[in-house]
Design goal:
Layout (H helix, E strand, L loop, with lengths): L3 E3 L2 E13 L2 E14 L7 E5 L10 H11 L9 H4 L4 H4 L4 E7 L16 H17 L22 H5 L6 E7 L1 H9 L3 H10 L7 E3 L21 E8 L14 H7 L6 E6 L3 H6 L14 H5 L6 E6 L13 H4 L21 H14 L12 H5 L2 H6 L20 E2 L4
Parallel strand pairs: 4-5, 4-6, 6-8, 8-9, 9-10
Antiparallel strand pairs: 1-2, 2-3, 2-7, 3-5, 10-11
């Protein structure tokens, strides 16, 4: 499709195949949605992991077969940007924002689901971000590779013409299971590869185009470091993790790696959010001393992570569009928190809060650069000052946190 332009921003979609490792015959089909400035000089990229949309419906395979005849693809019907459209937050600092959807197989007999705990999704997200950095907005990446020299269509300038980022800095963000998957992506390439080997999920991706005889990129280990995503921040909205031995190892190993990372990390949970506070394994956050949570695992070695809790916050209140699938998490039969309390719905105060929070988070970074300073600069930053109050914005209140204030954090030793 041709990019859609509105004012100074464009929207485009790229369709690719990913092989997780050149020595492992495991592939996945994916679509990248991206908002980017028309001047193609984005200072950084927000790579957002969507939650409830990961995977496909029960008719995925019939739709896929029909699509081969009708030149269509069921992945094109999945548009996470409609549910997480915080594009107003990226405009002021001239950043880009992207999403990746994949025809995911959480387990072989349930190819349409992903309930969290699968590090492959974080790997895909990192690969998608790195693709956008290295090749930009083109699906003809092979014509810029060394193997393309044998093609009459070879164009050594193709990648540079297609690029839209002036740095490889990436804020990884996500909601629900996507919030946990973003934790893996934020670890960076070396850690993803190392833990992937330990979990029998090796990661050295090769990217393919969608042709009958596909061409492909070099494995990511052969890419210059400047062409791979450089995680500079992590923003988690009600992260949900799951652990099922063999099938879903969960993100605890990745959180252990992040616990020693000196980079801004923020987690937001809802007071009434059963999905991340009760159903997640472990829960995203707990105010009870001694209870293990994703937050406590992230603070194990004194990381920079902070957490806040939204009063009357829900699991779906962040969304910019209503989703019947997400709302299942908030049915009275599923959630016993906050009985009789009117929680936030999509497109309300919690949505506006999320967009403004993302904008404040992006403001931490100088144009084309990473965060400057140490832990004290982070805790004393405008973002934390804004977040650490009862009502940051939008007629929305935060809950008091242990130790006073409206953020929870464990200072580095």
């Amino acid at each position: 499709m041709k990019p859609i332009r509105i004012d100074d921003y464009c929207f485009d979609r790229i369709h690719l195949w990913l092989q997780y490792d050149p020595f492992v015959p495991e592939f996945i089909e994916m679509v990248i949605e991206v908002f980017y400035p028309a001047n193609r000089k984005a200072n950084g990229l927000v790579m957002f992991n969507h939650g409830f949309l990961i995977g496909n419906d029960l008719l995925w395979y019939p739709k896929k077969i029909a699509g081969m005849l009708l030149d269509d693809n069921p992945l094109f019907g999945i548009n996470p940007s409609a549910y997480y459209n915080y594009s107003e937050a990226i405009v002021e600092k001239n950043w880009a924002m992207a999403f990746v959807s994949a025809s995911h197989a959480q387990v072989d007999w349930m190819p349409w689901t992903d309930i969290g705990g699968n590090p492959r999704v974080g790997q895909e997200t990192f690969a998608a971000a790195s693709y956008l950095i290295r090749y930009g907005l083109t699906e003809f990446f092979w014509l810029a590779e060394s193997r393309g020299h044998n093609s009459k269509n070879f164009d050594a300038q193709l990648a540079s013409k297609a690029k839209f980022l002036v740095s490889n800095n990436v804020i990884f963000a996500g909601h629900s299971v996507g919030g946990a998957h973003a934790q893996a992506a934020a670890c960076g390439f070396d850690t993803l590869s190392q833990i992937g080997r330990q979990q029998c999920r090796p990661f050295n991706p090769v990217i393919y185009n969608r042709e009958l005889l596909p061409t492909f990129s070099m494995p990511m280990t052969d890419w210059p470091e400047a062409d791979r995503a450089n995680p500079v921040g992590l923003l988690m909205l009600s992260p949900v993790d799951q652990h099922v031995p063999i099938f879903m190892p969960g993100m605890s190993d990745y959180r252990a790696a992040l616990a020693s990372r000196q980079m801004p990390m923020a987690m937001v949970v809802g007071q009434c959010d059963c999905a991340c506070l009760d159903m997640s394994q472990p829960p995203a956050w707990s105010g009870t001393p001694g209870v293990e949570s994703q937050f406590s695992q992230l603070t194990g070695d004194g990381s920079w992570v902070v957490a806040s809790q939204v009063e009357r916050g829900s699991h779906c209140g962040y969304l910019t569009n209503k989703s019947p699938l997400c709302s299942v998490a908030e049915l009275p039969s599923q959630c016993k928190r906050c009985p009789g309390v009117e929680v936030y719905k999509p497109m309300g105060a919690e949505t506006a809060f999320t967009a403004e929070m993302l904008g404040k988070f992006i403001n931490l970074y100088p144009n084309g650069g990473g965060f400057e300073g140490g832990f004290n600069d982070w805790i004393g930053s405008e973002f934390i000052t804004w977040l650490n109050r009862q009502s940051p914005c939008c007629d929305l209140n935060l809950m008091p946190m242990p130790g006073g204030g409206y953020i929870d954090n464990v200072p580095p030793a």
